[in-house]
Every structure is written in structure tokens, then in C-alpha cells.
Specification:
This protein has about 750 residues and is of the alpha+beta class. It is built from 15 helices and 39 strands. Helix 5 packs parallel to helix 6.
């Protein structure tokens, strides 16, 4: 998968893509190509690709020794600002207040054929031999005595190129990193739209698309988390691309903290896509022999539009980021008590919900917020992870046993990164709280953020959590984070004389350290990530948590747009998907139970409503749906997903489907948000992922050839049009239909 030609040209390739770069005349690395697989390269082709005998006008020569050479019109693999290239660079290093204009020269390379999974820090991993190869290139800035190690990984079955870097200070001088991006990708044209997954609390990861032009287009977070408002994932989309055709280049970050994802277009309409830790409010100090390693970036390429991109991003996350066992282990169907009870519960009330859930087929009871301290609202007790004996007089171990005796797994909610002012932790350890040393300080949701840059704080939190996890034989944790960081300042860093610019990164390292502690001691526990809903939905969290609560908005119609955006970057198996009550608590919308279940079936299924108050017909619908879900669980979680209509959030019709690897079985969801008057009776939705040589039973009724279904499509359910009351299959607003296709040949 990696060819090295004449010790200066590097070709990473598989059946899908080629990634090509070289050692330039100035001994730096120069980018040549990323796209469709080029096959075996001939010497004449390489000579042609490397031909660059002229210099762009209005530029400065890199040095007088190299004729007609300027970095302004060369595409660097890891560019540095200021040495004839005035675009934003990937790395900025200072000594005190003196900027260094770095010059990393190629020294040598090695190739590794293994890539193991390590809980210490999230990263991609290989599943076995011949699954991945990593090219490791060592460069050195001789004058500044800095060594840069570049890592490039290609996997056997995906278009993804994974990049990261390590900087080592070899000098006696202490230096400061002000910027160190994880990946840079140069493209020869700017004829693309910039696509981001943007929004806010209750409306995360909506698709936003806008043209790029000369200058910088960017999304970022400075909240200490990847955030509700933006997501690290971005894409450059061919202006004519649709769901099944067109070139798309995308980037993501295996990281959960502050990020910057941007594209810069220069005066010659060439685009430079960069992604990494946000350089704002970032600094890292390196003394002699100290090193800093960036999070991994992931670049993707698709020439088959959005569905091709989904295949790459979703498959890569499942096979090379999320722990492999979560593809094989069945995800439990969860009942979460939150929207059923909020803080108003006792053991008997919870047990009645658990017993009813078990009758309906649910498999895991998750006790949400309010079980600890004296937590009767969201303004107290965080940091006091002792069970509330008013609500659980016999302790949490006893209650957990009662849930297990019902035949259910048991889960608990924690918000480990936070502390309430009324707790002993807050009163006894004021230096454990994130806040600057001045009088005024912000407070959010009645709570403060703990200084997870301090290892002592992380360990103290875990020492509170661990006994409860052990006592309850806990199966499931919902890890929440409801408040972003303000006045970022670490008393711990001040004490050990480290720059405050290190805080945000050290904080997220502390989050990962707590994950590592839990999963090392309790390797089979399933941790669901959550951050006030979808405020930390990223590959870094997915490395530890196989599924994430996507949004505090559980409304089914809103979830259509959230899921459509999310699945451009993350797999269905990551999308924790609950059926909630109506009117919905976030938007007060009334939607049919059928729709709520038809949406929530795509992803790890859960329920979050007072099931003891439902009538027999509603309970039977839930029971039937759970039985259907159990029969098709692995297909709904891990089947290949494709969008069938559009990814335009303005579309009234949403339809997606999953199929198995053999294209023998498919499940397709059909959703119309608003009813249409006097609509056409006969309409079809093409299903391009089917096998034309097979015949399919549709809903165990009609038998249709894959050729017809692929090229003409499924017959849409008949919508009520004002005159067809007897034959209409769907009517009113918020329509849904689930198709089940099984090959019968």
C-alpha cells in the first residue's frame, strides 16, 4: 500500500485512492495528488507530475540557491508561514516573543504495518496484519534544533488518509508551540462548496453549505468541547455533486476539544484545507527533549457523491475508531427514566417502569440524573457521587440488584466533569475549580467545571465513581457534560509553572484519562457519551463511547435533519435514538408513535417516556416494534446506509435505507414532514444500492426485480389526496413508512 520511489516520492494507495507527495528541491515535503487510485506509476508520469520549471508572478524566491523556486506556488504537506508562503501555516513555534520561520528537511523514513489500539489517547487502529500501513517520515530543522515526525496511515479498504505529527525539541532552549495542526490537504482548484455540520443546542449538526472563494472559510470551537454549534467534520463538495455522484473531499479530527477546520483559497484559486487543535488560546511549552503529538486527522475522498462519502466515513469509524467488540456485541434496547420522571422518583416508581419495560421487550434500565447527593433539581450535588438514601434507603447496590432480578441490565447517569457549590468537593478544594483568580466568574446551570487538567482531580472523581460501578455491577454509563468552559484558567498549571495556554488540551487529556481508568477496570461497560445532548459528538468520544446522545431534542421530525447531517460523518451505530412522549418536551410537537419509532429504529434504540401511562394499543405497538428491531438490530445498526432522496435540509421528504453486504436484505425509512394536497398517486423512490440480478419481496408482499427497484424505484405509500380515503396508506402531517426488502432468489 506504500511505495517509495527513489527515496523521494511517496505513493500511498489501495484500490480506491492514491495519495502522492515528494521531497521538493528545498528538502521539504510537497503535496502532489489525492484522489482516484493511479495504479502503478511509470517514471515518465512521475517526471511529468514533478515538472515545475517556472515561478508565479509577484512572489518571493525561497532562497537564492534554488532557481525559480517559491513556496507560494508549491503545495506543502505541512506548510510553514512566512518563508515565501504567506498563507496560514500548519505550525508556529516561538522562543519567548520571537517567531521562528521553520525549515524542516527530510532525513529518513520507515514503514510500520501494525497500528494498535491504546486507551491512553483516541486514534485510529488496524484490525490485523495487512489492514493498514503507516509511513513515518523524520524531518529536522537543523538551525533551530527541532525534529518533526510526520505520520501517514492508509487502510486497505477505505479512502481515508490519517495524519498526525510529533515535534521534539532537541535544543537547550525552551520553546512554545502556538499552532500545530493535525492535517493539511491541498487541492488544485477552489471550485467547491464548503459543507459544515452546524447548529445549536436542540438543533445540532444541520448541513450548511456555501461556496468558497479567495480568503478563508472556517468553523471552530473555543468552548473546550467540539460543541453544539459546530463539528470538526467539514467537506469540500463539487458544486454539481448530489447523493450519488460528484467529487467530495472531507476532513475530521479524532479529538474532542477546541478545534479549527478551515479552507484557505489563494490568488490562483488553489484551496488549502486544514484541521487541528484551535490555535487560539493554545500554547504548549517544550523544554529540551520534550515532545508534543497532535491528535489524528482523517481525510476522506469520494467520487460517488454523498452516499460514497457516507460509506467511507461510517465504515472507517466503525472499523478503525470505535472498539471492534461493539460491532459484535448487541447494543441493548434502553429505557431511560429522564423524560418519564425527571427528578421526581423513588424506588417503587422506577421499579414499575423497569417491570413494564421488561414486559415490552426492553433490555437495559438507565437511571438518569437525580440519584445522588440531595439532587432534586439541577442546581446541587454534582461532585457528591454518593447515593441519595432518601430515594434509595437500601443503597444503590440493592436497587441495582432489583433491576437485574427483573432481567434488565442497569445503567447510571454521571456528570463527572462538574461540581456544584453546595458540595464538600467544592468547599474543600476551591483550587479544583476552573476559574481565573479575579473576583468575577461565570456560572452555568448552577455548576462549575472541574479542573481536569489536574490529574489529582480526575483520580478523585474516579475514586467516587468506582465503588458505585463495582457495587451495582454496572452495565451502562451515561456520561453527561452540561456546561461549557468559561474563564479558562487552571490553578494546577499555575502551581506547576506551565502556561495557561496548555489548559484546554490538558483538560481533554484528563477526560480521556477518566475514560481510560473506567474502561481498564471495567472493560465490558458500555459508556454513552453525552454533552447536554450533542455538544461533544466527535470521533474522540466515539473511540471510548460506541454511541452518543445526539441531541436533547428528542422530537422525531427534528431528528430527521440531525441524523441526516450526522451520518455524513458518523455511523448509525453511534446515534443513540430514543422514542419520547408527546407533546414533545423540547418543541411541543405532536407526532404519531409510528413515526417516532420508525425514526428511532435507525440507531441504538431506546425509550424515554412514562410507559406506565400508555394505553394497551400503544404498548402493543411498542412491543411489536421492539420485536421487529431485535430481529433486524444488526442490520439497522451496522448495515450500509444510503440517502435515497436528498441531503437538503429544506426537503419535505426524507428517505434513507440500510442494506447488508450481500445486498440480500434492506430496510428503508420513508418520512414526509408536511402533508401535500392532491399529491400524485404514483411516485417512486429509486434504491441504487440493490442488486439488479436479484428479486426482492417488498414487505413480504410484492416480488420485484432489483433492476426495477434500482432504476425506477419503490412505490411510495399512497398519500391521502382528498379523494382516496379508502386506499390511502398515509395521511396528515408527519408521515412515515418502513419498507422491508428481502431477496428471494
Amino acid at each position: 500500500m506504500i511505495d517509495v520511489i527513489s527515496n523521494k516520492i511517496f505513493h500511498l494507495h489501495n484500490d480506491k485512492v492514491s495519495y502522492l507527495f515528494n521531497v521538493m528541491e528545498n528538502k521539504q515535503l510537497g503535496h502532489l495528488y489525492y484522489g482516484k487510485n493511479l495504479g502503478d506509476l511509470e517514471e515518465s508520469d512521475l517526471d511529468y507530475l514533478l515538472k515545475h520549471d517556472s515561478k508565479s508572478a509577484g512572489t518571493v524566491k525561497y532562497s537564492p540557491e534554488i532557481k525559480n523556486f517559491t513556496l507560494a506556488d508549491h503545495e506543502s504537506e505541512y506548510p510553514v508561514y512566512g518563508s515565501s508562503d504567506y498563507r496560514e501555516g500548519a505550525i508556529d513555534v516561538y522562543r519567548a516573543d520571537e517567531p521562528w520561520y521553520l525549515d524542516f528537511h527530510f532525513e529518513n523514513y520507515t514503514i510500520e504495518k501494525t497500528k494498535t489500539r491504546d486507551l491512553k489517547f483516541p486514534a485510529s487502529y488496524a484490525q490485523g496484519e495487512n489492514d493498514a500501513e503507516t509511513l513515518i517520515i523524520t524531518l529536522k530543522d537543523q538551525e533551530h534544533e527541532l525534529r518533526l515526525i510526520e505520520y501517514f496511515t492508509i487502510f486497505a479498504n477505505y479512502s481515508a488518509i490519517v495524519r498526525s505529527q510529533k515535534l521534539i525539541n532537541l535544543s537547550d532552549t525552551t520553546v512554545q508551540i502556538h499552532n500545530m495542526m493535525s492535517g493539511v490537504l491541498s487541492l488544485p482548484t477552489a471550485d467547491y462548496d464548503f459543507l459544515s455540520l452546524s447548529g445549536a443546542w436542540l438543533k445540532e449538526r444541520h448541513i450548511k453549505r456555501r461556496p468558497i472563494e479567495q480568503g478563508i472559510t472556517a468553523v471552530e470551537s473555543l468552548k473546550g468541547a467540539s460543541s453544539h454549534q459546530q463539528n470538526p467534520f467539514v467537506a469540500l463538495v463539487d458544486k454539481k455533486a448530489d447523493i450519488n455522484q460528484g467529487n467530495i473531499y472531507a476532513a475530521n479530527l479524532i479529538y474532542s476539544g477546541n478545534f479549527l477546520s478551515q479552507v484557505e483559497v489563494n490568488e490562483w484559486d488553489k484551496a488549502r484545507l486544514s484541521i487541528g487543535i484551535n490555535p487560539k488560546y493554545f500554547e504548549w511549552q517544550l523544554a529540551k527533549n520534550e515532545e508534543f503529538t497532535t491528535p489524528e486527522s482523517v481525510f476522506y475522498y469520494s467520487d460517488q457523491g454523498f452516499n460514497g462519502l457516507i460509506k467511507e466515513t461510517n465504515g472507517f469509524a466503525e472499523d478503525h475508531v470505535i472498539a471492534r467488540k461493539w460491532q459484535e456485541n448487541l447494543r441493548p434496547i434502553v429505557f431511560n427514566n429522564w423524560e418519564a420522571t425527571y427528578f421526581d422518583f423513588n424506588e417503587d416508581k422506577l421499579l414499575s417502569l423497569a417491570q413494564e419495560g421488561k414486559k415490552l421487550g426492553m433490555e437495559c434500565f438507565v437511571l438518569d440524573d437525580g440519584w445522588f447527593g440531595h439532587r432534586d433539581d439541577d442546581r446541587s450535588s454534582l461532585g457528591n457521587w454518593a447515593v441519595d438514601c432518601r430515594k434509595f434507603p437500601n443503597g444503590m447496590g440493592s436497587f441495582a440488584k432489583r433491576i437485574h432480578d427483573v432481567g434488565l441490565e442497569f445503567g447510571l447517569w454521571f456528570e463527572p466533569e462538574m461540581v456544584s457549590p453546595d458540595t464538600d468537593m467544592y468547599k474543600n478544594h476551591p483550587d479544583w475549580v476552573v476559574r481565573h483568580p479575579y473576583k468575577r466568574v461565570g456560572i452555568g446551570r448552577g455548576q462549575y467545571v472541574l479542573d481536569f487538567a489536574n490529574p489529582e482531580v480526575v483520580d478523585a472523581v474516579y475514586q467516587q465513581m468506582k465503588p458505585t460501578i463495582a457495587e451495582t455491577n454496572l452495565d451502562y454509563i451515561k456520561w453527561d457534560m452540561n456546561r461549557n468552559i468559561t474563564e479558562a484558567y487552571s490553578p494546577y498549571l499555575a502551581k506547576i509553572n506551565r502556561p495557561q495556554g496548555e489548559f484546554f488540551h490538558r483538560y481533554i487529556l484528563g477526560v480521556y484519562a477518566l475514560y481510560q481508568k473506567i474502561l481498564t477496570d471495567f472493560p465490558n461497560i458500555l459508556i454513552e457519551g453525552c454533552s447536554g445532548g450533542g455538544g461533544r459528538f466527535d470521533l474522540g468520544i466515539l473511540f471510548y463511547s460506541p454511541q452518543i446522545w445526539p441531541s436533547d431534542d428528542s422530537d422525531a421530525i427534528e431528528k430527521l435533519d440531525i441524523l441526516t447531517g450526522t451520518t455524513l460523518a458518523y455511523p448509525l451505530s453511534a446515534f443513540s435514538n430514543h422514542v419520547s412522549a408527546i407533546p414533545n418536551d423540547q418543541v411541543k410537537r405532536n407526532t404519531p408513535l409510528t413515526l417516532r419509532q420508525d425514526v428511532s429504529d435507525f440507531g441504538p434504540l431506546g425509550y424515554e417516556l412514562d410507559i406506565t401511562k400508555l394505553d394497551d394499543e400503544q404498548k402493543q405497538k411498542i412491543k411489536n416494534n421492539i420485536a421487529f428491531y431485535k430481529q433486524n438490530r444488526q442490520l439497522l445498526l451496522h448495515g450500509r446506509l444510503q440517502q435515497l432522496v436528498s441531503v437538503d435540509p429544506a426537503s419535505n421528504l426524507v428517505s434513507w435505507g440500510v442494506t447488508d453486504n450481500q445486498k440480500s436484505e434492506s430496510l428503508i425509512g420513508f418520512y414526509r414532514k408536511i402533508a401535500q394536497p392532491n399529491s400524485a398517486v404514483v411516485r417512486h423512490i429509486a434504491v441504487p444500492f440493490l442488486d439488479e440480478t436479484k428479486h426482492y419481496a417488498v414487505d413480504d408482499k410484492s416480488k420485484v426485480s432489483g433492476r426495477i427497484l434500482k432504476n425506477i424505484g419503490l412505490l411510495e405509500p399512497f398519500e391521502f389526496n382528498g379523494a382516496n380515503l379508502e386506499t390511502a396508506q398515509i395521511s396528515g402531517d408527519y408521515q412515515s413508512w418502513m419498507y422491508h426488502l428481502i431477496a428471494k432468489d
